[in-house]
Amino acid sequence: MDIDLVCKLRDEISTSIALVGGKAVSLAQLAAVGVKVPPTIIISTAAYSRHITLLRETLEYPDFESAIDDPESGREELERVRAAILRQDVEDCLVTSIKTILPDILLDSSQTPPTIAVRSSATCEDLANASFAGQHDSFLGTPVGELLSTIKRCWASLWTDRAVYYRRQHGFSHYGIKMAVILQSMLCPESAGTMFTINPVTGATEELLIESNWGLGETVVSGKVTPDLFVAQFNGASVMITERHIRPKRGMLTMNKAGSLHYERIIGARIMEPSLADEHVLAIAQYGRKIASALGCPLDLEWAMQAQTLYILQARPITSRLNTSAA
């Protein structure tokens, strides 16, 4: 196995943003302090670099420079860049490396056949001064047979209009940025959502905000539903729930045993049932406080609760206050 192309969270290169990107480094930090994360492997930025190098050697090499430097006419060229990345075959050495290490995450999968969450991890992503949240693409429920094409889709998302515009607006160089890809065993959680380890509205450091919905947390992250909201407050080592806002949750994203994702309409009393029991709210709050202390900064976390086990899917530093309301 070529360790420079594929690695595990506990491998040495997983601590390098240059090699695995900001999101993967955060996951490695979580694993290092004993936080439960889904079984994970990382396709390093070296694999992306080799893919682009091969692309540059082809006769159909797109004009990256024009795509980047001209905000108006560059859109068509960006589309050519993305198409070229998708068209170029993945190197055989990367395919071999993935096949060697992939069983390590599939053995723990709860689906038959297993599916994979494929997540972007750019070298500019989830940093303390810029999160790049939502700028690059991630894909849930990917069948093994579609893994290589989905990895290329993550690479190509580095060159979408919105990603290039975001970098331009925030003063990031386009030329040094690379994309790693995170492969995680898919979960089938009973509930999932986000957590802010400080109050992102008021800045109160003794408060945490937890948002939750039934099923996968994508409905919370994307804003497709209005999730339940819980505010937990710490007083020393003790924690209590100070606010509960149970909202009408009319839809959830679920995954069946075959690995298919579908949006399911919620009906009946479950619409207004809390998607988290109080004991789970308190457990998530305690876990969030522990993680923020270990990583040394306030965090925006994505979590999932499956079979009474709490998993952290990703963690990013809180870079600004949000315009959300607890009402």
Supply database-style keywords.
10 helices, D-amino Acid Aminotransferase, Chain A, domain 1, 5-stranded antiparallel sheet, disordered C terminus, about 325 residues
Give a written overview of the molecule.
With 327 residues, the chain is of the alpha+beta class. The chain has 2 domains: 6-185, ATP-grasp fold, A domain (Dna Ligase, domain 1, 2-Layer Sandwich); 191-317, 2-Layer Sandwich (D-amino Acid Aminotransferase, Chain A, domain 1). The chain is 31% helix and 26% strand. Strand 8 and strand 9 (238-245) form a beta hairpin. Helix 4 runs antiparallel to helix 7 (147-156). Mean pLDDT is 86; it is low at 126-132 and 323-327.
How are the elements arranged and paired?
Blueprint: E1 6-8, H1 17-32, E2 40-43, H2 45-56, H3 64-69, H4 74-87, H5 92-101, H6 103-106, E3 115-122, E4 139-143, H7 147-156, H8 161-169, E5 179-185, E6 191-196, E7 207-214, H9 218-221, E8 228-235, E9 238-245, E10 251-255, E11 261-265, H10 278-295, E12 299-306, E13 309-317
Antiparallel strand pairs: 1-2, 2-5, 3-4, 3-5, 6-7, 6-12, 7-8, 8-9, 10-11, 12-13
- What is the 3D form? globular
How many domains make up the 3D coordinates? 2
- In CATH's first tier, which class of the largest domain applies? Alpha Beta
For the sheet with most strands, the description reads: 6 strands, antiparallel
Taken as a percent bin, the fraction of beta residues is 25-35%
What would you say the CATH architecture of the largest domain is? Answer: 2-Layer Sandwich
How do the strands line up in the largest sheet?
9-8-7-6-12-13
What is the H/E order? EHEHHHHHEEHHEEEHEEEEHEE
Using the coordinates shown, work out and report the CATH topology of the largest domain: Dna Ligase, domain 1
DSSP, total strands: 13
CATH superfamily of the largest domain: ATP-grasp fold, A domain
What are the segments in which pLDDT stays under 50 over at least 5 consecutive residues? 126-132, 323-327
SS content category: alpha+beta
Global mean pLDDT: 86
Helix content: 25-40%
Whole-angstrom Rg: 20 Å
Distance between the termini: 52 Å
